Amino acid sequence: MSKSCKGLAMELVKCLSESDCVKVEKRSFRECAGEKSPSISSECVGLRETYFNCKRGQVDMRARIRGNKGY
């Protein structure tokens, strides 16, 4: 279960690495993922929300019993 969000994490890193926040503004992935910036595409914002929900599901006891919805 600890690796069920790994695919989403890789997609998020790939999307953020192609965004202007990382390329033009030379900011770290963590800074770009943590805030709502207009230099991040809506696809990256959607991936970020899905990744955060996946990580939240790992600590939710109901989701732990049923299993996390994998990528």
Short structural summary:
Helices cover 65% and strands 0% of the residues. The protein has 5 helices and no strands. The chain has helices at residues 6-17, 20-23, 29-34, 42-59, 61-66.
Write up what this structure looks like.
This protein is mainly alpha-helical and 71 residues long. It has one domain (5-64). Helices cover 65% and strands 0% of the residues. It is built from five helices and no strands. The protein has helices spanning 6-17, 20-23, 29-34, 42-59, 61-66. Helix 1 (6-17) runs antiparallel to helix 4 (42-59). The radius of gyration is 13 Å and the shape is elongated. The termini are close together. 20% of the residues are buried.
Keywords:
65% helix, disulfide bond, 5 helices, single chain, mainly alpha, Cyt_c_oxidase_assmbl_Pet191, Cytochrome c oxidase assembly factor 5, 71 residues
Counted up, domains total 1
- DSSP strand count: 0
Shape: elongated
- The arrangement of helices and strands along the chain is HHHHH
Mean of all residue-level pLDDT scores: 81
Distance between the termini: 11 Å
Strand content: under 5%
pLDDT below 50 for ≥5 consecutive residues: which ranges? none
Write the layout of secondary structure elements.
Blueprint: H1 6-17, H2 20-23, H3 29-34, H4 42-59, H5 61-66
